[in-house]
Amino acid sequence: MKDIIAVINQKGGVGKSTVAYTLGKAFLLKGYKVLFIDLDGQCDLSHTMKVDEDSLELTSLDLLTGKNKASKVIQQKKQGDIIPGSPALVIADSKITENGKEFRLAKALKEISSDYDYIIIDTPPALGIIMTNALTACTGVIIPAQPDIYSLKGINRLYKTISTAKEMSNPSLKVMGILLNRYNPRAIISREVAYMLDKTASQLQTKLFKTKIKECTAIKESQINRTDIFTYAPNSNAAYDYKSLADEILREGK
């Protein structure tokens, strides 16, 4: 196991599911074994990976409630191995209340961690028990952000949550970096936010990834077709950017 990476931001609409899926696919293309985990009740990652949502019996909620082992919940799809999400994840806070609840996912993943090089976790846009479990289980966090002022405001609050998790349940947790998504290098606001995010990242003892994911219509088109950008538009800016992001992470991991 190289890393368990949680893609996290309590702000919705910043492309968490897209980042989780496409980064994982980039690792797969490089020959690494990858497991995707969908912890978002919207189940966008599961949908993109063509999980049959109408016949779901075993999901990531089973790991959090302790009903099933990770090995029993994994689905092997053409796009990769996935532990699918469940709409019932939205009420996880009321279902998972016992002592040690924040360690449920970490304990469940020990069984299968040696089977994969990377585990990529997609998280919901909310602070709660699911986010806490993801932060406790992962080795590193990627924070996607859009080039707008609201992303800047949300990151400081999110970092406090990450710091609490590091202090209370996961002392080795690392913020791998802030990823600027939907970036338009010709737009003044994109360049200004990139500059401010770089300064914010330094203050929070992390970094803004050198790779920026440029705005790309092909990403949305690939999602409609429930496939990855490397298959749908291999020569697109987005395909190039995500390969560069994977390379940047791999270099940092050496």
Produce a short descriptive summary.
Helix content is 45%, strand content 14%.
Secondary-structure content class: alpha/beta
CATH superfamily: P-loop containing nucleotide triphosphate hydrolases
Using the alpha-carbon principal axes, give the shape: globular
Element-by-element helix/strand order: EHEHHHEEHHEHEHEHHHH
Q: Architecture in CATH?
A: 3-Layer(aba) Sandwich
How many strands? 7
Number of helices: 12
Q: What proportion of the residues is helical, as a percent range?
A: 40-55%
Query: What's the main sheet like?
Result: 7 strands, mixed
Can you put this structure into words, describing what you see?
This protein starts with a strand and ends with a helix. The protein has a single domain, classed as Rossmann fold. Helix 1 packs across helix 12 (237-253). The chain has helices spanning 16-29, 44-48, 60-65, 70-73, 92-95, 104-110, 129-137, 149-168, 188-203, 217-224, 229-232, 237-253, and strands at 3-7, 34-38, 75-77, 80-83, 118-122, 140-145, 174-180. By secondary structure, it is an alpha/beta fold. 45% of the residues lie in helices and 14% in strands. The protein has a 7-stranded mixed sheet, with helices on both faces.
